[in-house]
Amino acid sequence: MDWNRTKTIFIWVFLILNVFLYTQYLERYNEGQEIEVLGETTKLESLLKEDNITYSALPNNNESAAYYSGQIKNFTPSEVPYFANQRTEIENGNKLVVTMDKPVKLQETGTHDKFTEFLHSHVHKGDSYELWNVDNENKVATFFQKVNDLTLYYNVRGYVKIFWNDEDRVIAYEQTMLEKHEKLEKQQNLLTPIQVLQILYGKNLLKPDSQILKMKVGYSTIVQLTQTQVFAPTWEVRVRLADKSEEIHFVNAVDGKIVEIQNDLSEIVEPEEDLE
Description:
- It is a single chain.
- The protein is built from three helices and 15 strands.
- It is α+β, with helices and mostly antiparallel strands.
- The chain is globular and about 60 Å long.
- The chain starts with a helix and ends in a 24-residue tail after the last strand.
């Protein structure tokens, strides 16, 4: 008897058996996960229906993203971008405060709204920012910088504000910038929209008679008081309440924690050390 050949056959048989059993295990596990998610989804849908909380089509569940870092852009006079009809001052080393010599008429195009059109034509690296809010009462349009082509929410070092007058002409803008964006780790699977709604509902943050308007993935800042900052994938959830007002919730898309964001873009002051 050829024992070496017999031993080899047994090894291959056991390997094939192990692969088969492992495949069966994965299939059963995935089926169980699907049943569990389906059960959670059905239960949540029932609870939302009872509270008259509605939503339309949710985003694709196959979302993935990575943590990123970025550095605050500090401007020197020689680095200030030149645009005709603009006078630029540097504030605190990292903010450009720009005044238009002659106010610029806001004009809409077929592809951009009037504020985005101005941004792309008159602001340094304007296409790396995304419109967030238009305050018609105070005549201020706010843009947030993008990281990995996703919105970075309320970072005082990565925004543009455009100011205009009663004649619909831009009179000034201010700009801060984060640069040298780097991926800190590989892409991660993110919480699904249903899981995010379940988290918000469980914390009583979804009120009865409200409507989920939009859900999308962006970034929030988890380390901000340093030159190098760190950004976490974050679900943005916009909700319209019964009184027609809107709320925006932010949820860490990896660990599911509610993200508390200072939403006024005011300067963040690092706390003084206790000298006692």
